[in-house]
UniProtKB/TrEMBL annotation:
Required for morphogenesis and for the elongation of the flagellar filament by facilitating polymerization of the flagellin monomers at the tip of growing filament. Forms a capping structure, which prevents flagellin subunits (transported through the central channel of the flagellum) from leaking out without polymerization at the distal end. Residues 27-132 form the Flagellar hook-associated protein 2 N-terminal domain. One of its GO terms (biological process) is cell adhesion. InterPro entries: FliD, FliD_C, FliD_N. It holds the Pfam family FliD_N. GO terms for cellular component: bacterial-type flagellum filament cap; bacterial-type flagellum hook; extracellular region. This is Flagellar hook-associated protein 2. Its main location: secreted. Homopentamer. Belongs to the FliD family. Residues 508-797 form the Flagellar hook-associated protein 2 C-terminal domain. Keywords: Bacterial flagellum, Coiled coil, Secreted. It is found in: Secreted; Bacterial flagellum.
């Protein structure tokens, strides 16, 4: 009994069915093939669904190709964004042109000609041109000199870390961190101030991997007066270190190069913050950058320069030596006397330029050099011209009023000025550029103000030319000096304004001996169908106000010319592209599916996954090319489009006639599919003799029609094409074109909102159901065959045991 149990246990262990590759090992059956055969009906249904999906994809691609051709055609020939080829624009058909003739022809430039009026006349004289009222006056701000603040040669209380660099390595990437300028010089608050300044500096450093800034990963903390640098994420594996920087600044902050930290261990300062220190006056290492008319040069002071200045004697002698030293360096950089430094007011250095039109700007990259409380005591970027980015309060204008509840708040100061009767109000924190832009963009004010930095003047011009234009700028009632300080007082503006003038010209019609005087506010005029620009005077002599008519001056006449080349070229291009669309659409609806007997099929159906396994990529590509053919054979929507394209140019345009009347003929045979042909000579003749008719045959409005099909054949040819193409390819608005409703467009709201996309979704759900059913059936059959293998194995084992027992 013991032997039987042992044998049975061994047999059940070794015959377990687990892997497809070894199925039928005992029975000798190819169970995988049997399972595939038993589930072939489900697999066939899956293949059928996938084939339907592939057909839908091919159909969608074909539809979208047609949509793209219609949209491209519209963009080229029916859109105002393509003015040179837009057949909806009247300009295309304006082939009749006039050119000015005569000795004074250069004074009259013809810009366009209307064909509605061909009255013959000549311009016999131009007495004056239309000009704008204009005023140019010196700006009340800015000067030829830039001055430093008072320079103190005594000991200085400075922030030794301000403007200095420190280097922090984070995750093996080294970053340069610039400590903000103008750090505190108050020793009582230096630790707290530097913590804030350092964290601000971290916020300005972007991480190399784009994941944020250093301030989002690490930050400076403060314990008493001692700083530390720690990770902001306790679980982070990131590492960081202070890898370098200005040694004096690091020491004053309590750090040193080489200190490292991690999420678990902060970098601790080894001493209290001590950045506010008293230093002897020194210019060693200081730099000043001068920008003269765009040429930038930097002068530097070394130890010998500083020693020579501080050892020159009393403060007056030191200041004089400083001016001499600067002049020597400026001469070497720009040439002698281009920029001159002089002692002014006994304690300052003034910088002047010898050329009054030169623009000078001074800045610095070294700490404690310029800026509030610095050695030179002037702001960075200071210039000898008006800084339009300065606020009204910073420039010190007298306000019209102050805020009663907070009179010391300069940002709430009110400044009021009146421009041509329109009052403007600005606040103390408004920049000069804001003032100028607000006035310039106001139609009621009617002027344009331009700051001329080269001459430090304002140029003011009326928006409209002619004698009615005016310039009246003054401070509003109630006080304030904004207008006067910027532009000059009312009397100066009034006296300096050059009044605008009107265009005064005379014309003479053919057959009329008398002249007609025309007065216009613009030099661009249209007279009886001819538009032209007047660019000079003639026919008058003498000074302004006492002109005398010069009857010997030759009049300007106009000559008719015709240029049909552009219109003919555009229409010919349109016909070619239109015919291409006709060909492509008709090919889709008339091409039948190709027959095939391969794999027992009657047509080239999309290949199944199983079929593709036995084919090369070239064979698959060739097969699918044939399978796509005829995918839209007889399609009703494209058939309707083909029909509309056939008749778009063949039907009459109102009372104007047919396309053939202007040289555009539609193929009369059915096989011609309505393709167009051009009689170029006839088209040119129509454009030359009656361009207005040609225009109307293209752009006349569509008439009301009882249905959409008829409306596509109403109006001019361009209007018909526009309506027709939109009815099939429109992708915006509530109503979409027929083809867009069917197939949608890529990267558009219709991408997933179309008929085919909805059908694909239904098929996706059906496919998922079938694939689940297939997997369930296969698992069930495989389980059954596994058990069969086990039973056979057990029977074989028992048979062997019995056989051995009997022998």
């Amino acid at each position: 009994m013991t032997a039987i149990n042992s044998i049975a246990s061994t047999a059940s262990t070794t015959s377990t069915y687990t892997a497809k590759g070894f199925s039928g090992l005992v029975s000798g059956m190819d169970t995988e093939s049997v399972v595939e055969s038993m589930t072939a009906d489900i697999q066939a249904k899956i293949d059928k669904v996938k084939q339907e999906q592939q057909k839908n994809t091919w159909k969608q691609d074909a539809y979208r190709t047609v949509i793209a051709s219609l949209i491209n055609f519209q963009d080229k020939y029916l859109s105002y964004s393509s003015p040179s080829t837009n057949l909806l624009s009247s300009a295309i058909y304006n082939c009749s042109k006039k050119t000015s003739q005569g000795a004074n022809a250069s004074k009259i430039s013809v810009t366009s000609t209307s064909n509605s009026n061909n009255a013959a006349y000549q311009v016999s004289s131009v007495k004056s041109l239309a000009t704008k009222a204009r005023y140019t006056g010196a700006c009340g701000l800015g000067s030829n000199e830039i001055s430093t603040g008072s320079i103190d040669f005594g000991d200085r209380t400075v922030n030794v870390a301000s403007g200095k660099e420190m280097e922090i390595t984070y995750n093996n990437v080294r970053y340069s961190v610039t400590i903000p300028e103008n750090g505190t010089t108050d020793s009582d608050f230096q630790a707290l101030s530097m913590q804030s300044a350092l964290n601000e500096a971290l916020r300005s450093v972007t991480l190399e991997d784009g994941s944020g800034t250093l301030a989002e990963k690490i930050g400076f903390d403060l314990s008493g007066d001692t700083l530390s640098l720690k990770s902001l994420y306790s679980g982070s594996t990131n590492t960081f270190s202070i890898s370098g920087g200005d040694s004096e600044a690091l020491a004053a902050l309590g750090f040193s190069a080489g200190q490292s930290g991690s999420a678990a261990s902060a970098i601790e300062g080894t001493s209290a913050v001590d950045v506010v220190q008293t230093k002897a006056f020194s210019l060693e290492g200081k730099k000043l950058t001068f920008d003269l008319d765009g040429l930038s040069k930097t002068i530097s002071f070394d130890a010998s320069d500083s020693a020579a200045i501080t050892g020159a004697g009393d403060d007056a002698a030191k200041l004089q030596k400083l001016a001499e030293t600067i002049n020597s360096k400026l001469a070497a950089a720009f040439g002698a006397n281009k920029i001159v430094a002089d002692v002014t007011d006994g304690t300052k250095i003034g910088f002047t330029v010898t050329d009054s039109t030169s623009i000078l700007k001074i800045s610095s990259t070294s700490s404690d050099t310029i800026g509030s409380g610095s050695i030179f005591g002037m702001e960075s970027g200071i210039t000898n011209r008006l800084n339009t980015h300065k606020t009204l309060a910073e420039l010190g204008f007298t306000p019209t009023s102050k805020d009663a509840s907070d009179p010391d708040n300069t940002s709430l100061y009110a400044y009021k000025i009146t421009v041509n009767g329109k009052e403007f109000e600005f606040k103390g924190d408004d920049e000069i550029s804001t003032v100028l832009n607000k006035i310039n963009n106001d139609e009621t004010a009617g002027i344009n103000i331009t700051y001329l930095s080269t001459t430090n003047k304002f140029s003011i011009a009326a928006d409209q030319s002619g004698s009615t234009g005016k310039i009246d700028i003054q401070d509003s009632t109630g006080g304030g000096n904004l207008a006067a300080a910027l532009f000059g007082d009312t009397a100066a503006i009034s006296a300096g304004t050059v009044k605008g003038t009107d265009l005064v010209m005379t014309i003479k019609y053919d057959g009329d001996a008398s002249e007609t005087t025309l007065t216009r506010s613009s030099n661009s005029v249209t007279v009886d169908g001819i538009s032209f620009n007047v660019e000079g005077t003639f026919g008058w002599t003498g000074a302004e106000g006492s002109e005398v008519r010069d009857t010997t001056a030759e009049a300007v006449t106009f000559k008719n010319t015709s240029d049909t080349d552009n219109a003919v070229s555009v229409i010919k291009q349109m016909v070619e592209d239109y015919n291409k669309i006709i060909d492509s659409v008709n090919e889709l609806v008339t091409t039948k599916s190709r027959e095939s007997t391969k794999n027992g099929q009657n047509v080239y159906e999309p290949l199944t996954d199983a079929q593709k396994k036995d084919m090369t990529s070239e064979e698959i590509e060739a097969w699918e090319t044939k399978a796509k053919a005829g995918i839209l054979f007889g399609d009703s929507t494209l058939t309707q489009l083909a029909s509309s394209l056939r008749f778009a140019f063949s039907s009459k345009v109102g009372d104007l006639g047919f396309g053939k009347d202007i040289g555009i003929t539609t193929a009369s045979s059915y096989s011609g599919n309505g393709k167009l042909s051009i009689d170029e000579d006839k088209l040119r003749e129509a454009l030359t003799n009656n361009p207005e008719k040609v225009k109307e045959m293209f752009v006349s409005s569509a008439e009301d029609a009882p249905n959409s099909a008829m409306s596509n054949l109403s109006g001019g040819f361009a209007v018909r094409m526009q309506n027709l193409f939109e009815s099939y390819a429109k992708s915006t608005g509530s109503y979409k074109g027929k083809l867009v409703q069917l197939a949608g467009l890529q990267n558009n709201t219709t991408t997933s909102n179309n008929y085919i996309a909805r059908q694909q979704k239904i098929l996706d759900n059906k496919l998922e159901t079938l694939q689940t059913l297939l997997a369930t059936r296969q698992d069930r059959y495989q389980s059954q065959f596994t058990k069969l293998e086990q039973y056979i194995s057990q029977m074989n084992a028992q048979s062997s045991w019995l056989s051995s027992s009997m022998s």
